[in-house]
Each structure stands twice: as structure tokens, then as C-alpha cells.
UniProtKB/TrEMBL annotation:
Gene3D superfamilies given in the database record: Phosphoglycerate mutase-like
Top-level taxonomy: Bacteria, Bacillati, Actinomycetota, Actinomycetes, Propionibacteriales
UniProt protein name: Histidine phosphatase family protein
Length: 181
């Protein structure tokens, strides 16, 4: 049973770049599946979410095969969400387009997750969170926001009011699965 939560305070935004996709296949970019490493990393994403008790009420997920498979692997490893909206607009979206989509999140949602692509997801973190504090996290993201990179932001307010520099960067992780021996 879910906890009853107060409106418009302590919201969480999880921005995830899909896991590693396969290359060299004779398919359109949108149809590229996860690579072997991507499948392992998708499981690691799910383990990370479960371990940190991050349970989104809503996920906005790209319809690209690699993004959908990332979430499927995460669920297989223990991740959970109330609802997943697969949306064509996340594929090749830039930060301001992703922000518009986040603003459509219903106010009863406390934790929202977005599974998308670079450069949109990393750019959205830059757009939402000012660079004050959390220097080590920003340095890691500046070095690279790789596949399976996951930024967690805090936000106080209604989703429709989400604006540039209105969130706080709380964490940045890159869950990686171990290859089988």
C-alpha cells in the first residue's frame, strides 16, 4: 500500500539515460536493442532503484526499443512503478521539450522518472538544477553522462510550475552490471 503524501512538497525527479545499445545491426536507430552490457546494466538500474527505494508513481519512457528494454530489465531486477507512459516525444527530444512533458505530470505524483536519450536527458539536468553545491556530482556528470547514467533531483512545487534552475541535484549514479564469468 502506498503512503499518502502531501501536495506540492518534496518531489523527486529521476532522469535516466537508457542502458547501452547494440550497434552494427541492420535496423533503424529507434529499433536498436540493448547490447549484452546494456542488458546487465538495465538489471543494475533496477537493483539500484530497489535498493534506494525509489518507486516512481509515473515514468515517462521513450518508445525507442533500448529505452523500453532498459525499463523491462529494471523491473526484472526489482524496480517498480505505478504507471509507465511510453511517449514518442522523448526520442530525439531536447531539454525544453522534455521539461514540457514533465510539466504535464499530474500533481498527485510525488516521484516521476524519465527514461530517454542523450543529449536531452543530460541537458535537462543542467537546465533544471543550478550548479551550487554538490561539486563532486557535477564533476562526474561533466566528465561523462554515460548510458545508464541516473540523476536524481529534488523539487518543491507543482509540476506545472517546474522551471529552469528550480530543482536541486541530489545524486548521480551509473549502475553497472557485472559480466558473467
Amino acid at each position: 500500500m502506498r503512503r499518502v503524501r502531501c501536495m506540492a512538497v518534496n518531489r523527486t525527479i529521476v532522469l535516466l539515460r537508457h542502458a547501452k545499445s547494440a550497434w552494427g545491426l541492420d535496423v533503424e536507430d529507434h529499433e536498436r536493442p540493448l547490447s549484452k552490457r546494456g542488458k546487465r546494466d538495465g538489471l543494475a538500474v533496477g537493483e539500484h532503484l530497489a535498493r534506494h527505494r525509489i518507486e516512481p508513481e509515473l515514468i515517462w519512457c521513450s518508445r525507442a526499443v533500448r529505452a523500453r528494454q532498459t525499463w523491462e530489465r529494471a523491473v526484472k531486477a526489482g524496480a517498480d512503478a505505478d504507471r509507465v507512459n511510453y511517449d514518442d516525444h522523448l526520442y530525439e527530444a531536447v531539454a525544453h521539450e522534455l521539461l514540457k512533458l514533465l510539466r504535464k505530470t499530474p500533481d498527485e505524483v510525488r516521484t516521476v522518472m524519465m527514461i530517454g536519450h542523450a543529449p536531452g536527458i543530460p541537458d535537462l539536468v543542467e537546465k533544471l538544477a543550478p550548479r551550487d553545491g554538490k561539486t563532486e556530482l557535477w564533476n562526474r556528470m561533466d566528465t561523462k553522462f554515460p548510458t545508464s547514467g541516473m540523476a536524481v533531483l529534488g523539487y518543491d512545487g507543482h509540476w506545472s510550475d517546474l522551471r529552469k534552475q528550480s530543482a536541486t541535484l541530489l545524486d548521480f549514479a551509473v549502475p553497472r552490471g557485472k559480466p558473467k564469468k
